[in-house]
Amino acid sequence: MNRAGSFEMAKTLTEEVYDRLRDDIVTLRLKPGEKVSEERLARRYEVSRAPIRDAIQKLLQEELVLVKPQVGTIIMPLSLIRIKDVVEVRMLLEPYAAGAAAERVTDHDLEALDQNFRQLEQGGLDRNRTDEILFVTDNMLHQTIWRLCGNNEIYNVLYNYRGLVQRTVLAKVNPSKRVAPSRDEIFAIFKALQMRDRDAARRAMQEHVSGILGLIEQLIREEDAFLLEGVG
Amino acid sequence: MNRAGSFEMAKTLTEEVYDRLRDDIVTLRLKPGEKVSEERLARRYEVSRAPIRDAIQKLLQEELVLVKPQVGTIIMPLSLIRIKDVVEVRMLLEPYAAGAAAERVTDHDLEALDQNFRQLEQGGLDRNRTDEILFVTDNMLHQTIWRLCGNNEIYNVLYNYRGLVQRTVLAKVNPSKRVAPSRDEIFAIFKALQMRDRDAARRAMQEHVSGILGLIEQLIREEDAFLLEGVG
DNA sequence: CCTAACATACTGGTATGTCAGTTGTCAATC
DNA sequence: GATTGACAACTGACATACCAGTATGTTAGG
């Protein structure tokens, strides 16, 4: 059911609601901690409460919402600790996945990635556009690796996390700080894939996720400092 | 919402149905590939279709069932390939978890585990009873480690897999083959926890999961051989 | 005997109504 | 002024009814 098949049959309302709701959450149109209700959502999306309930069940599984019976449903608050846990899992899985993918990547996959990287290199674009391409490229690289690693469970686990990470990045990360290192990191991964070098791919991915983990840890420190400041 | 809190409030019907349905699946009372229907299940458990649907959503997330719209719902067929993927993920996560747990385990946790291991050692029990205790002990050891590893996401991922693994073991594994090595393996893990030895715990767990992986791979080979035989 | 149109039974998807539990309000009470 | 408790508003849990899509058996036509 995962790993988007070439083209989908007609989506059910549940799926449609799920997609829209999920997008509203990860793009922060629905804010962390915000209270929603099945009925209001039903009116908002102009469907009945049934598909809303089903969609919320799926979001519950991704832990993007929190349901308290008889009280309400809230958008899962951001938790840097939780994101740190997620990134730690990625740290354990993704280097292996990258290594496996290096041995399985096809020319077609490499070509698709190469197009994005060429856009990145030519430069001359304004900052926002560069960041956007970087974001898309990074995403594509990761998802390509998940898909190619030959282990569908790894794909599932990592795929399910993508919303959480994306939401955190949008909410907390000042893009300007992180662009340069990130670009070098993912480029190194791409190069390793091109050379079908398992070890190099593993190391490059390890480096990359370490970078993300370091960023998260720094954010946690900043948050702690802010909280202490508030008290003092 | 995970990590069973000390005592639960009144369960919702959905939770109750989920528990019963899940148990019926992992104990093979509902057989892999068997077709079920929301309405029949509703009659069987004497509830309406609503809680059945919610429960099925949860089982869908664990991939214990497969839902085809307008066609039916079937119990997820056993797939050794899939289990192999699952065990590979465990191979990447559990050694780390065991190492982390070794540094966090409390005397209370050790005492609880020790009780089980003492039962195993004294012997003099019939085979079935020994296997049962071994099974329980193994389960407790793993879940203790997941809980103690300090990373809730690792816990969640591994916890979600427990049904799939259990079902496969029940369906495919001839217990007599596997008892002795498994006992030594988990005992080594326990010892490492007792000594709070991170590296030893990691290695012992690696060994243990390797053993399981080897078992699965052997089962796959046997299945292939059987299929080829059928053709020849 | 085969094929294709059709009738039928069954499925999950969806809409809607009801219910019991929770929460916040606000007046009665101390 | 603080505490309490009745009450109204709102929530998700659950029941029920209906719908549209799918599979399958049946039959008319060749």
Describe this structure in words.
Chain A has helices at 13-26, 38-45, 49-61, 80-102, 107-122, 127-148, 152-172, 175-194, 198-231, and strands at residues 35-36, 65-68, 72-75. The longest helix of chain A is centred in the C-terminal third of the chain and has 34 residues, at 198-231. The first copy, chain A, is mainly α. The N and C termini of chain A lie far apart (52 Å). In chain A, helix 5 runs antiparallel to helix 6. Chain A has a three-stranded antiparallel β-sheet. The interface between A and B is medium-sized, with 22 and 22 residues. The structure holds a DNA duplex (30 and 30 nucleotides).
What structural keywords apply?
globular; 4% strand; 232 residues; homodimer; 3 strands
Major β-sheet profile of chain A = 3 strands, antiparallel
User: How large is the share of residues in beta strands of chain A?
Assistant: under 5%
- For this structure, the quaternary state is homodimer
Gyration radius of chain A, to the nearest Å? 19 Å
Through-space gap between termini of chain A: 52 Å
Task: Supply the helix-strand structural class of chain A.
Answer: mainly alpha
Please count the beta strands of chain A (DSSP E, at least 2 residues each).
3
Mean pLDDT across all amino acids of chain A = 89
Main interface by residue count = A-B, 22 and 22 residues
The percent of residues in helical segments of chain A reads over 70%
How are helices and strands ordered from N to C of chain A?
Answer: HEHHEEHHHHHH
| Helical run tally of chain A | 9
Low-confidence stretches of chain A: 1-8
Strand order across the largest sheet of chain A: 1-3-2
**Overall body shape of chain A:** globular
